[in-house]
């Protein structure tokens, strides 16, 4: 029987119920907070939302209602925490397999002594969801980055044995000082040795001042500046720092899947390369190292969450191009449950999904072999999705 290449979503998040409970118990971001007059509680994640959060809390304390359009964060709908909702979303959009990940800010904010236990419970929750939907769900595990090193390393060893785990999701903060922190290197080495792909995802963006008085705090420009520009720059900076620190050369088994098609890396890799060539001490070191292009061709995968064929073509070209393996390194994603439709039923089709699927069709041709590879074939191969999901020793 000829089987069609499955459609695989490698960028799709959830907050399991126990994680939501923690956010509900908190007094600062990340936080889940109910406000009078709105049906859904709000989930507030980003530092740019601190001022609107304080304003809405002050209004609530005065017994006033804040208009929904001025509330901080986004409505916490069933899309964030329900696995049944995830399956419905997949069925609605023709997605055969999803590789789930905890959404930002993961466990970055958790007290050191709680982090290991919470990671174990979140990862057990994801395992149970996958087990309940065999063949349809896999996951990237969450790491207790604030825990003492032995606990963090033990978690990596543990998740590597979980049958449905295919990697880990990691923010750019690392242990708190970024991924190029020397203390992070044993962690990255352990992930590489365990064959766990790191799904690198932004959360912190850029400092609020860069958005100007109208951008970051008043809500006048919504989430556009931090999400469309801050997130991709954050990813770009994190990977460039890893590259400049020589980590890719020292850890040849390290594999990163970069969110949002690598931020701005596909567009800026040439400029990074040129700047290295014009900085005397870096160029001396660079002569014995691989270039940023080599890293993009050998150790980095990009998701296809870029919403336009223009960006997608750049991502393919930067990954090696059609002749050089670039088509083999891109993987479709949705970023569900973020970016729901504003004017149509959330149970129906999401424009944010069709924009990404259409970009693949427009760039590579509807029904082409390379489109099928990006829509799922690459993920099956890279993340070993057809490998039997059995408990490893
Ligand atoms: N906003 C977030 O906070 N996270 C995402 O992954 C996407 C949008
Ligand atoms: Zn995301």
Shape: globular
- Helix/strand order, N-terminal first: EHEEHEHEHEHEHEHHHEHHHEHEHH
Measured distance between first and last alpha carbons = 34 Å
Number of strands: 11
Assign the CATH architecture of the largest domain: Alpha-Beta Barrel
CATH H-level homologous superfamily name of the largest domain: Metal-dependent hydrolases
Mean pLDDT: 95
Which runs of at least 5 residues are low in confidence (pLDDT < 50)?
Answer: none
What compounds sit in this structure? uracil, zinc ion
Number of helices: 15
**CATH level 1 class label of the largest domain:** Alpha Beta
The total domain count is 2
Q: Structural class per helix/strand content?
A: alpha/beta
Beta-strand percentage range: 5-15%
Strand order of the largest sheet: 1-5-6-7-8-9-10-11
* Biggest sheet descriptor: 8 strands, parallel
CATH topology of the largest domain: TIM Barrel
Query: Compute the gyration radius: what is it?
Result: 21 Å
Q: Portion of residues in helices?
A: 40-55%
How would you sum up this structure, described in words?
The protein has 393 residues and is an alpha/beta fold. The protein folds into 2 domains: 324 residues, TIM Barrel (Alpha-Beta Barrel), CATH 3.20.20.140; 61 residues, no CATH class. α4 packs parallel to α5, α10 crosses α13 and α13 crosses α14. The protein starts with 7 loop residues before the first strand and ends in an 11-residue tail after the last helix. The mean pLDDT is 95. It binds uracil and zinc ion (ZN). Zinc ion (ZN) binds next to β1. It comes from Sporothrix stenoceras. InterPro entries: ACMSD, Amidohydro-rel, Metal_Hydrolase. Pfam families: Amidohydro_2. Belongs to the metallo-dependent hydrolases superfamily.
């Amino acid at each position: 029987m000829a089987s069609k290449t499955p459609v695989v979503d490698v960028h799709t998040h959830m907050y399991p119920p126990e994680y939501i409970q923690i956010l509900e118990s908190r007094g600062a971001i990340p936080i889940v907070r109910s406000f009078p007059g709105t049906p859904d509680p709000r989930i507030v994640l980003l530092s740019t939302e601190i001022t609107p959060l304080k304003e809405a809390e002050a209004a609530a304390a005065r017994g006033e209602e804040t208009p929904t359009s001025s509330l901080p964060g986004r409505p916490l709908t069933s899309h964030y925490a329900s696995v049944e909702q995830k399956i419905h979303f997949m069925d609605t959009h023709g997605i055969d397999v999803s590789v789930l990940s905890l959404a930002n800010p993961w466990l970055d904010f958790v007290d050191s002594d709680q982090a290991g236990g919470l990671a174990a419970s979140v990862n057990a929750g994801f395992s149970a969801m996958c087990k309940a939907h065999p063949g349809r769900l896999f996951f990237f595990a969450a790491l207790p980055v604030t825990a003492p090193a032995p606990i963090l390393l033990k978690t990596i060893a543990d998740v590597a044995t979980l049958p449905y785990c295919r990697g880990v999701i990691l923010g750019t903060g690392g242990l708190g000082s970024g991924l190029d922190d020397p203390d992070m290197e044993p962690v990255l080495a352990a992930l590489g040795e365990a064959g766990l792909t790191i799904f690198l995802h932004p959360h912190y963006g850029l400092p609020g001042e860069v958005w100007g008085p109208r951008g970051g705090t008043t809500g006048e420009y919504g989430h556009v500046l931090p999400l469309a520009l801050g997130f991709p720059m954050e990813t770009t900076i994190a990977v460039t720092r890893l590259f400049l620190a020589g980590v890719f050369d020292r850890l040849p088994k390290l594999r990163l899947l970069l969110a949002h098609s690598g931020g701005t890396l596909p567009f800026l890799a040439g400029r990074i390369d040129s700047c290295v060539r014009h900085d005397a001490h870096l160029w001396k070191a660079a002569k014995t190292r691989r270039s940023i292009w080599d890293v993009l061709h050998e150790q980095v995968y990009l998701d296809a969450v870029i919403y336009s064929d223009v960006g997608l073509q750049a991502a393919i070209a930067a990954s090696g191009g059609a002749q050089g393996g670039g088509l083999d390194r891109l993987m479709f994603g949705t970023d569900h449950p973020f970016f729901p439709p504003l004017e149509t039923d959330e149970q129906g089709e999401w424009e944010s999904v069709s924009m990404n699927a259409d970009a693949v069709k427009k760039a590579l041709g509807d029904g082409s072999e390379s489109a099928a590879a990006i829509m799922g074939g690459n993920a099956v191969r890279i993340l070993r999705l057809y490998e039997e999901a059995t408990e490893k020793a």
